[in-house]
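Q: What would this chain look like folded?
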Amino acid sequence: MQKDLKDLLEKVAEEEKIRECNNCIGCCIAFAIPEVEKNMYDACKHLNYLTPKAQTDSDSRGNCSVYEDRPKVCADFTCLWKQGFGDREKDWPMKSGLFFVAHPINGPVAFELWNSAASQASETVTRMKEETKYSYFIKESPSPEGLPIL
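A: My prediction, written as structure tokens:
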């Protein structure tokens, strides 16, 4: 593992969580979560936005219906934006369409939450490269439709 990546992962692990998710569902979309039988880029079945109430109540979107008993992998996860990297407003994953992760095996990855987000959010990519000192592999959204709620 590169020394810089190791340093970045240690910084992320040591820092207090300085931002709240604010109904972001990037990690609930981008990752495979075997504990809840979720495939990569599928919406987690526990997202409240899949319920009829959430379709009309924006305050409930993104909330996990099993939050108190969610899998450990979900409870322990923190993206780079939540750790303080990038601009608080402009680089929020649900605004930029990019979800940044310092992956210990694959290196830095930016997941595209909807089609063409990377090209539309080039300033976000630039800021994250500068702040973390990494170039990111962009994992493109697998479908032109992207996230089902947008």
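The chain has seven helices and three strands.
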